[in-house]
Amino acid sequence: MARFDRVFRFWPWRRSSAPAPSEELGQDGPLTAMVIVAHPDDAEFLCGGTVAKWCGRGWTVYYVLATSGDKGTHDSSFSSQELAAIREQEQREACRVLGVKEVVFLGHPDGFLEADVELRGEIVRLLRQYRPDVVLTWDGFRPGFNHADHRAIGIAVRDAIYPAVRDHLYYPEHAEEGLEAHQVNELLLAGSDEPDYHVDVAAHMETKLEAILCHSSQLGGRSREELRRLWEERMRSSRNGRLTESFKRVTIRRSMRQVQPPGAPAEVGQQQAEQGAKGQGSEGKERQAGG
Ligand SMILES: [Zn+2]
After folding, report:
1. Hey, what domains does the chain have and what are their CATH numbers?
2. pTM higher than the cut 0.85
3. 151 C-alpha vs ligand 1 centroid, how far in Å?
């Protein structure tokens, strides 16, 4: 019981005492974001308006796709390789419309994604390479019906962010590649049943639709008008008539091991996070050593 108390007291995910989730990210200037999803078109549906808004404000946005959607067709004339090539090209086109700087395809088989040590390591490497302030992914713990790949990528990203990416002894081979540990401080979870961070995308709906339309192999011939009606209805019904994309926001406390600016006072919460992180970190290492 005492062990449980310690873990929860020092848990680094931000709780109710943190800044309100409604405080908009990027108020002090453009940030770097990484959107990590399972399939081509996931991101456009989940956050196309948000990404368009961020890019319009000067943010740098990267996409990572765990699979290339190589199974999703009823047309028996396609091979997986052909389908993957089409879906990757459509995704690149959508990224160009939105202003995304770069898209990375990890090439895992569609439908068989696993939140394992390998996937976590790939994500950790990309986080250390691109060093985003904000990461957006699927809510891997959403109850109810969900695609297994959405669940897997959501869990793998969460496990990569805490604590692996910030502790250099996780995946130490990255240091040999010149990559340093990194901490992500903001995580936005899409598809959550408890969203608390709402981005008004009314001014970016046309760009979102344009990006969705790039995925023509997945749209079954739907027109822009049909898509607009569908999406506006869905978005308005969930947010009192406002056109928003909604997420669960998780703010992660800064570790005391990160270099602090000269004279910056350490907060009690930070000290707690540090003590907790030490406990968590050593547990993680034991598990790795044992496994
Ligand atoms: Zn998907």
Report:
1. 2-290 (3.40.50.10320)
2. no
3. 10
